[in-house]
Specification:
The protein is mostly helical. About 75% of the residues lie in helices and about 0% in strands. The longest helix is centred in the N-terminal third of the chain and has 18 residues, at about 25-40.
Length: about 100
C-alpha cells in the first residue's frame, strides 16, 4: 500500500523495545528515525512525540533540541495535553542550562 502514517509510532515502539533490551544506542536511533519520518510527513504532533521521547531519554543533540523548539512553536493545538507539557518542561530545563 505504501502508507507510512504509522511509521513514527512503530519506530517509537521499537525504541521502547530496545530500551527494554538494555540497548540505548539502538533506542535513540529508533527515536531519531521516528522524528525523521514524522518530519518528512510534516506531522508536527508526531515530531513532537519523537523529539520528547528522545529528550527524555537524554539522547537529544543540539539540533534535535532546536527541532523540538521549532516543532513546539508550530504546534498550535493541544496546549493542555500531556505531550505539550512534557515538551515545554524539556525546553524549560534546557533553556535554564544553556547559559551554564
Amino acid at each position: 500500500m505504501g502508507e507510512r502514517i504509522y511509521m513514527p509510532d512503530l519506530q517509537l515502539l521499537q525504541a521502547r523495545i530496545e530500551i527494554g533490551r538494555g540497548r540505548p544506542v539502538e533506542a535513540h536511533e529508533a527515536m531519531r528515525s521516528a522524528w525523521r519520518e514524522a518530519a518528512q510527513q510534516q506531522a508536527t504532533w508526531l515530531e513532537l512525540s519523537a523529539l520528547v521521547a528522545l529528550g527524555e531519554a537524554c539522547g537529544a543533540r543540539s539540533a534535535e533540541i532546536d527541532a523540538l523548539a521549532a516543532a513546539r512553536a508550530r504546534q498550535r493545538e493541544g496546549a493542555g495535553s500531556v505531550l505539550v507539557a512534557r515538551a515545554d518542561a524539556l525546553l524549560g530545563r534546557w533553556s535554564g542550562t544553556s547559559g551554564a
